[in-house]
Write a structure and sequence with these properties.
This protein has 440 residues and is an all-alpha fold. The chain is built from 16 helices and no strands. Helix content is 77%, strand content 0%. The mean pLDDT is 82.
């Protein structure tokens, strides 16, 4: 596959990550401002967590349906193309609409509107993303190609994430939430349609329809023991990271005492360092294996995240601003692997599955991952809402915000202990493990 085609494929990651990060970073802050903010809450904190949980459930339920539909598609232009073509525009439109609630104060109507819009957002997110990710193992066919394409994809993911997190804060301060989401949506739309015109599946992919019904495909996927080990470890990793992502505006405004627009500086430090670390992660994964790098990154998160508890400690040797900026920058080192390694691991797992079943079911593996991952992300949003509800989220009562760091670290530690048993594909290829021992 020519370099420019690979580049345009990878660019799609910037689009959906930009939209998802805008939503994850700012939606709770928009609907549930800090306790001492000028803006009135639009829904209660606990209610927001419950609604976000509902949205993630819709997302999880859509994953296997969309994935099986994509794996079995017989579309003339390829199994994945129709989903990318028809999914990008509604995903962008719903993201914009969600920041326009019907009432400017807390009300039942806002609750119903938020539930509907979140459900639609997560449905269209799945509609686009699962088939998009499923293309990776089809167009990159060996270990090094996958690490390289995952790295290229990660660069665009960071670009989309950086645009969402670094540019959105100043845009909000100057123009407001509405203008911010329109600008972000327009940029995302361009990225979302770049893979549509770059990847000719008839030329670059040899995959054929899988020929399995939904129940059979799901059953075989969740019977893959290597996949289950990876899945639990990765899901708990994302559980912790999602709490931190949602918490950054609160860390900046409540614990550190800066303006909400300065959240972009802190997020920029994390993602800037992550971007600088991409070449190192690429080289290290090829040399020591993807599993080792993933474990190192999870361990680094476990060590660093509890430091969030001390962001407003008066006895710090640094100012809260400098200390918070340092911690976020250090988090960028392990964050780099989170954007590169997981998708490459799933691609390896689908290879082992093909050794046993003779079928390529990439989308279903990403979809099955989505069922668990998005359910866990929903629980993380609910957990954060409950922390705020019971322990406080204001300058006078900041304990709920402080606890997000240690709580996130605890879940990632559990994920690390489970993931350490993951068998790498290289062990199968070398004959050290029989693939039939990993899949049924």
């Amino acid at each position: 596959m020519p370099f420019m085609n690979r580049l345009f494929y990878a660019a799609g990651g910037a689009g959906f990550n930009l939209l998802e990060r805008v939503l994850t970073t700012w939606l709770m802050f928009y609907y549930v401002p800090p306790g001492d903010a000028v803006r009135s809450p639009l829904v209660a904190a606990g209610v927001f967590g419950s609604i976000f949980f509902f949205g993630r459930v819709v997302d999880a339920l859509a994953d296997p349906v969309i994935s099986n539909w994509s794996d079995n598609s017989r579309a003339a232009r390829g199994r994945r193309w129709p989903f990318l073509f028809w999914g990008g525009l509604p995903l962008t439109a719903v993201t914009i609409a969600i920041f326009y609630p019907p009432v400017a104060e807390e009300s039942t109507l806002n609750v119903l509107y938020l539930a509907l819009m979140l459900g639609l957002f997560f449905f269209f997110f799945t509609f686009y993303v699962c088939p998009y990710l499923a293309l990776l193992p089809e167009i990159a066919r060996n270990r090094n190609e996958r690490v390289d394409l995952s790295t290229m994809q990660a660069i665009f993911i960071i670009l989309g994430t950086a645009l969402a997190m670094v540019a959105s804060g100043p845009l909000i301060e100057r123009f407001g939430f509405g203008a911010m989401v329109w600008i972000m949506g327009g940029i995302a739309l361009i990225f979302l349609y770049m893979p549509v015109f770059a990847v000719d599946e008839r030329r670059f992919s040899r995959a054929r329809p899988a020929g399995l019904n939904l129940v059979e495909a799901l059953k075989k996927t969740f019977q893959n023991r290597a996949f289950l080990v990876y899945l639990v470890g990765n899901a708990l990793y994302w559980f912790g990271f999602n709490i931190i992502t949602m918490g950054v505006p609160y860390y900046v405004t409540v614990l550190i005492g800066a303006r909400e627009g300065q959240s972009s500086i802190f997020l920029g430090a994390a993602f800037g360092v992550a971007l600088l670390c991409f070449p190192l992660i690429n080289i290290a994964a090829k040399k020591w294996g993807k599993k080792a790098i993933m474990m190192f990154s999870m361990g680094a998160f476990v060590v660093l995240l509890p430091l969030i508890y001390f962001f407003n400690d008066p006895f710090l040797p640094l100012s809260p601003y400098a200390f918070g900026l340092l911690v976020l920058a250090l988090l960028g080192i392990p964050l780099a692997s989170l954007f590169i390694i997981p998708n490459a691991l799933v691609a390896d797992i689908t290879d082992v599955d093909e050794m046993v079943t003779g079928r390529r079911r990439e989308s279903m593996y990403f979809g099955a991952q989505g069922i668990v991952l998005k359910s866990v992300l929903a629980l993380s949003s609910l957990t954060m809402g409950l922390l705020f509800q019971f322990f406080g989220s204001s300058t006078a009562e900041p304990l709920g915000i402080q606890l997000t760091g240690p709580v996130a670290a605890g879940f990632i530690l559990i994920g690390l202990l489970i993931f350490r048993t993951y068998p790498e594909k290289e062990e199968v290829v070398k004959g050290e493990i029989d693939p039939r021992d990993l899949t049924i």
